């Protein structure tokens, strides 16, 4: 893709496409004995289908164009208008943008085919426009894929604000050997009761996610590369896709599972992501097979964050986008107090408990987490208006939570005692407490003689809703 200003990584995956396979959210499997027969059937079927040829450089949209390779159409839009179930729209190398009527509405039973051997490296579809989803209202998308359509060997980019590459809603769709790059939000959005097969494709430099899977969607995501994108995959609502044999690396988070989603993860390599390999939030229950490989993820390989401790559960509390709460979670070989803010933000480990001086790490984690939840809830749940402070209670150095500079540490607002090195360096303790959210943003800790304070505004900013989880709180029809 020499004409592009960004690199394309070509994977060496050699995966065979299997169409018409029965998928199960509980026991996904493939019958390898049928693979060759199915592939042959698919090849013969394509050979018998009507082919419309498209070339943006040489083509015309005249009435006689498209049926022969030497007399192609100029736009995908014109080919779609002439297509019917069984049509293959064969794309020549080139950029498909000028003259196209976005979104491209790929009809049921129609295949859009570029260069599968190079994952669409030189077949580039760029653009997008409004589509009124039955579930999600108005969305900006490049391609709307209807039931039983296929998208093979193309590159898709939607640079528009909140732009999505391919939209799959209530449909069975095959996407193979393609590239999704520089989409402003996600490469592919899957929703409703969709059951797509997304295979042997690559997702890079997308603003939100490589793939989002929502509502009751199922299907299979197999053998893809997710690299240098926001979140590799974001899986929410009650969806339960099979996610197998993917390379998920160098993203911010490899896989985010939220709400009540139940994806099946098998044989994936999830590595070198800058925050976490896998994050599971709320009532989600990912099935994580032992043959997945997690390694080199900078914060932790897996962070499973559940319901808050110490405050009565209410239906609206965890869903709220502006109220902070905390959970005590396993973290590496110890435990951490994890800050959260609804289901549309990524939880962050704020206090990692390693010391056994006062009590076991798990016990201290649970006790302090409960205190934090009780105090933050009583203060209105707005971290922007709170501060961590150091002081003395019963002549012991402590960390407490206050609402302003005039409030001092008291037994009622004390979180935990400091001892040893920490007692002699309280400012450093506060720096560590807020470090996860202020990297590269300066030092928010202020020292006043022997004492120090740390405003939690920066912590609150680090827990803002994520673009990749826009669907959690979005209005739906």
CATH level-1 class of the largest domain: Mainly Beta
Strand content: 25-35%
Shape: elongated
Question: Which homologous superfamily in CATH is the superfamily of the largest domain?
Answer: Single-stranded right-handed beta-helix, Pectin lyase-like
Helix content: 10-25%
The neighbouring-strand order within the major sheet is 1-2-5-9-12-15-18-21-24-27
Number of separate helices: 7
Using only CA atoms, what is the Rg?
26 Å
Question: What CATH architecture of the largest domain do you see?
Answer: 3 Solenoid
Element layout with pairings:
Layout: H1 35-48, E1 51-54, H2 76-82, E2 88-91, E3 94-96, E4 104-106, E5 111-113, E6 123-126, E7 129-133, E8 137-145, E9 150-152, E10 155-157, E11 163-169, E12 174-176, E13 179-181, E14 186-191, E15 197-199, E16 202-204, E17 209-213, E18 220-222, E19 225-227, E20 231-235, E21 242-244, E22 247-249, E23 253-257, E24 264-266, E25 269-271, E26 276-281, E27 287-288, E28 293-295, E29 300-305, E30 325-331, E31 334-340, E32 348-353, H3 361-378, E33 387-393, E34 396-402, E35 414-417, H4 420-424, H5 426-434, E36 446-448, E37 451-455, H6 457-462, H7 470-473
Parallel strand pairs: 1-2, 2-5, 3-6, 4-8, 5-9, 6-10, 8-11, 9-12, 10-13, 11-14, 12-15, 13-16, 14-17, 15-18, 16-19, 17-20, 18-21, 19-22, 20-23, 21-24, 22-25, 23-26, 24-27, 25-28, 26-29
Antiparallel strand pairs: 7-8, 30-31, 31-32, 33-34, 33-37, 34-35, 36-37
């Amino acid at each position: 893709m020499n004409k592009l200003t960004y690199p394309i990584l070509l994977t060496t995956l050699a995966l065979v496409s299997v169409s018409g396979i029965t998928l199960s959210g509980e026991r996904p499997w493939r019958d390898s004995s049928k693979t060759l027969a199915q592939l042959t059937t698919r090849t013969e079927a394509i050979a018998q289908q009507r082919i419309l040829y498209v070339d943006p450089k040489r083509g015309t949209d005249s009435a006689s164009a498209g049926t022969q390779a030497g007399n192609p159409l100029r736009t995908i839009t014109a080919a779609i208008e002439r297509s019917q179930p069984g049509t293959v729209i064969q794309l020549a190398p080139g950029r498909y943008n000028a003259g196209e009527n976005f979104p491209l509405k790929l009809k049921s039973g129609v295949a859009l085919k570029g260069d599968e051997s190079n994952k669409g490296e030189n077949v580039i579809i760029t653009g997008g426009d409004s589509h009124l989803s039955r579930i999600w209202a108005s969305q900006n998308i490049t391609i709307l894929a209807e039931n039983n359509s296929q998208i093979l060997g193309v590159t898709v980019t939607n640079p528009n604000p909140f732009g999505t590459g391919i939209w799959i809603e209530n449909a069975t769709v095959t996407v193979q050997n393609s590239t999704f790059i520089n989409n402003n939000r996600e490469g592919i959005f899957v929703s409703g009761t969709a059951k797509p097969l997304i295979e042997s494709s690559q997702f890079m430099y997308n603003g939100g996610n490589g793939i989002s899977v929502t509502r009751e969607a199922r299907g299979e995501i197999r053998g893809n590369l997710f690299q240098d994108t926001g979140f590799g995959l974001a899986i929410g609502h009650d969806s339960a896709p099979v996610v197998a044999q993917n390379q998920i690396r160098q993203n911010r988070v490899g896989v985010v599972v939220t709400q009540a989603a139940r994806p099946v993860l098998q044989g994936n390599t999830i590595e070198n992501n800058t925050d976490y390999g896998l994050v599971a939030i709320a009532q989600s229950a990912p099935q994580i097979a032992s043959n997945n490989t997690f390694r080199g993820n900078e914060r932790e390989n897996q962070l499973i964050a559940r319901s808050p401790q110490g405050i009565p559960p209410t239906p609206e509390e965890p869903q709220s986008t502006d109220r902070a709460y905390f959970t005590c979670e396993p973290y590496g070989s110890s435990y951490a107090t994890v800050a959260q803010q609804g289901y549309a933000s990524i939880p962050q480990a704020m206090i990692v408990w390693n010391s056994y001086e006062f009590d076991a790490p798990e016990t201290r984690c649970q006790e302090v987490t409960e205190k934090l939840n009780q105090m933050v809830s009583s203060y209105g749940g707005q971290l922007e208006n709170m501060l961590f402070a150091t002081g003395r209670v019963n002549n012991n150095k402590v960390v407490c939570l206050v609402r302003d500079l005039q409030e001092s540490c008291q037994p009622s607002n004390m979180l935990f005692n400091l001892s040893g090195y920490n007692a002699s360096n309280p400012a450093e303790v506060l720096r560590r407490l807020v470090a996860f959210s202020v990297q590269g943003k300066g030092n928010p800790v202020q020292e006043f003689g022997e004492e120090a304070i740390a405003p939690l505004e920066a912590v609150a900013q680090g827990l803002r809703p994520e673009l990749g989880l826009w669907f959690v709180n979005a209005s739906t029809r």
